[in-house]
Amino acid sequence: MEEKRIYYVGIDHGNHLMKSTNHVFENGVERLATKPTFSANTLIFEGVFYKIGEKRNSVKDSKLADDDYYLLTLAALAKECQSGSIPNGARVVLGVGLPLKHFATVRKAFVKYLKREQQPVKFRYEDVQYSFTIENVLAFPQCYAAVADKLGDMKGEYLIVDVGSWTIDIMHVKDGVPVESKCETFTESMVSVIQEIKGKSSEKFGKEIPESIIIDYISNANCNYPEKYTRLMDEALEAFVKRVEGILKENGHDTEFANIIYVGGGAKVMAAYGRHSDNISYVTDVRANARGYEYLAGQIA
Questions:
Q1: Where is the Actin-like protein N-terminal domain (predicted)?
Q2: DSSP characters for 99-165?
Q3: Global pTM value
């Protein structure tokens, strides 16, 4: 009997957004006491109802503190199945990632958290019963993954700057090889600037700009919002970009001669408000890390 094919699925467990190869959704998980009226975004696991992705969860000290990111992983698998990337009942290998700063210390625990003993894992999502066997979980540094398929073309000095929801990772690459001793993680983040915008709006106008509006404005430059609010957002985003560029310089990175590639959820902000030069480029697809994890998992296999 022929052994069933193994499918590789990249998932980026963000502090704001969950990303897979084909999907992006907020990382909210709400446990429900009773069955909800609508099946949309509803996950049923071990007899408990959850609403998935209808808001952003608060940032956790540890993603392993509860089952939220495991439940979000199941929802991501269901969504990839819905889009035809994997069949229901598939054997899967997950490609996932962690910030550079925590990679060495958290990797094993994160793999164990996602690859549970009871297989296959069975659950219901949006009124469809799913079953997947998680054969393995492979973890990679998130900054590295976003450019993994491009490393062979990187000649000379490169800085890969992953501007994420809760951290900024900086990876130094020389002739296509990451220089581990020069990899760094900083706590400046997109979540912090979003909170700053909300606070300033409340203070100045007596009205907080909804987070969904801020994210929409960051993602879509042509949004038609009142000028007083867009001006406030522009000022805060410009200041954020200057802080990011300052972090690079303050930590000894030559931003004029090194090639810089901005990746992650903040890459669009860096492209819109940052310094432009021939040595600076941007990977603005927020799914780049997830796609990188999937690529790397497949390469290892």
A1: 56-144
A2: -HHHHHHHHHHHHHHHS-SS-SEEEEETTEEEEEEEEEEEEEEHHHHTTGGGGGG--SEEEEEEE-S
A3: 0.88
